[in-house]
Write a structure and sequence with these properties.
By secondary structure, the protein is of the alpha+beta class. The chain is built from 15 helices and 16 strands. The strands form 6 sheets. It has a 4-stranded antiparallel sheet. Strands 3-4-5 form a 3-stranded antiparallel sheet, with no helix packed on it. A 3-stranded antiparallel sheet has the order 6-14-7, with helices on one face. The chain is globular, with a radius of gyration of 24 Å.
């Protein structure tokens, strides 16, 4: 456990989760700097092994979300022996401590085998997991993935676009003739938010009136119904979705109001869009993907409502990330899905400090102070109250504009039992078993 936390706080090239812990654990920042080429022998000051079953972690300041941070899937326990042997190549030699272990990894598929030493049993005392093997196949595209499911070659399809549902299920005639595969659909609200983002430090987005005008001009309902085929839910509240303990309903979100949007734009010096600079909206994804359709919808609605010129530029998602990082994209669409179920995981992305700049270049003293107060608050209800205030500040200042949320939808073969969907969009096959349906 100590070695895992040290790797997670390190400056090693293979570490992609340092942002979770470096600023929180005592000695983390110093350890990060010293561990660019290897882990220092003196170890991480804020992590101590007390005995065989106890590790003590010291934080720089109270942080009540810390236990939830430790559930992040990037903080799974690493074998100390494996790390000492493989070093940076450990990513090619994972040691499975969960219900399954890696058996094979090729360009076509991943094969997992049951971990015979897994610790967990079900409520009846049966050893888990039930499955002996799991195969994960890499599909070239969604259509080939659907074909494999319809042909009985695979048992699970995740993230099904609305426009493809009919294709997956087959025609009415297929159903009448018993040709379509027997299946079940599992769905739950995803802890995710899709939004429009700005570089808040550059013109015209450094003007809160312009950002608010854009927010009020986006007809979210129209985007979902007319452009996305009903696939999504309007963000009626704030940036943070509903989750256990968080009163999202207390945040008053943006409502479409074209007249008010036009007045704000005029007050900012651009009546009816006159002399407003031409914008480029960057979208990360593939052509005609849901992300592409969503971005085009935003641009088209803003053109019509505010009479401003917007060019749409579609780039691969990885390229968009780099453009934003290099501050070469000032206006873009993106989304966030929770790494762990806590409002802090969403709101931290807009927090700005000397050691923690955010990609939106949003710096607001009120937001920062309220967020810091929330992090230190140990009474859960009060902590959530401060998070609500942060969320409302995002709506009022509009450094980003929450637009819609997704459902996490999975289609499974009827022979699969005890499959559960997760709002974090993680798949857990620990208790899944196979039982062929009775033939009529």
């Amino acid at each position: 456990v100590k070695k895992t936390l040290e790797i997670a706080c390190s400056g090693l090239e293979i570490n992609n989760v340092s942002y979770l812990l470096v600023n929180r654990i005592v000695g983390g920042e110093d350890f990060f700097i010293k561990s660019k080429n290897g882990l220092p022998k003196e170890g991480l000051k804020g992590v101590k092994v007390i005995d065989k079953y106890t590790v003590e972690i010291s934080l720089n300041a109270p942080f009540s979300s810390f236990p939830k941070v430790l559930t992040h899937n990037g903080l799974g326990i690493i074998s100390s022996k494996a790390f000492d042997k493989y070093g940076k190549n450990i990513i090619n030699h994972p040691i499975g401590t969960g219900p399954f272990q890696l058996d094979a990894f090729t360009k076509e598929k991943i094969i997992l085998k049951r971990n015979e030493n897994y610790w967990k049993k079900d409520e009846l005392g049966n050893q888990l997991p039930f499955l002996s093997n799991v195969e994960v196949l890499f599909a070239q595209n969604k259509r080939s993935e659907f074909n494999a499911f319809r042909n009985g070659e695979t048992d699970i399809v995740i993230q099904i676009p609305v426009e493809e549902v009919e294709y997956v299920l087959g025609t009415l005639k297929d159903a009448q003739e018993g040709k379509n595969i027997r299946h079940k659909v599992k769905s739950c609200p995803s802890l995710s938010t899709k939004y429009v983002a700005f570089n808040n430090a550059v013109e015209p987005f450094n003007n809160p009136m312009i950002r608010k005008a854009i927010a009020l001009a986006i007809n979210k309902k129209k985007i979902i119904e007319d452009y996305l085929g009903g696939d999504g839910w309007v963000c009626e509240n704030g940036f943070v979705p509903e989750m256990s303990g968080y009163p999202a309903e207390q945040v008053k979100g943006h409502k479409f109001n074209s007249e008010k949007a036009k007045k704000l734009l005029a007050s900012a010096g651009f009546p009816n869009g006159k002399n407003f600079p031409e914008l480029t909206l960057y979208i990360g994804g593939k052509i005609e993907s849901k992300a592409h359709k969503y971005g085009k919808a935003v641009a088209e609605i803003l053109r019509k409502t505010l009479n401003i010129n917007i060019n749409v530029k579609l780039v691969p998602f990885k390229e968009l990330i780099q453009l934003v990082k290099n501050q070469e994209a000032d206006f873009w669409t993106e989304g966030w899905i929770a790494d762990y179920p806590d409002p802090e995981n969403f709101l931290v992305s807009l927090y700005q400090s000397e050691n923690n700049p955010n990609r939106f270049n949003y710096s607001d003293k009120i937001y920062n102070k309220t967020f810091e107060t929330a992090l230190k608050e140990t009474v859960e209800e009060k902590r959530m109250e401060f998070f609500v205030q942060c969320d409302q500040r995002i709506i009022d200042q509009a450094p980003i504009i929450p637009v819609y949320r997704d459902d996490y939808t999975v289609m499974i073969n009827a022979r699969i039992h005890d499959f559960k969907v997760n709002p974090l969009e993680m798949i857990n096959l620990t208790e899944v078993f196979i039982k062929e349906p009775r033939k009529k």
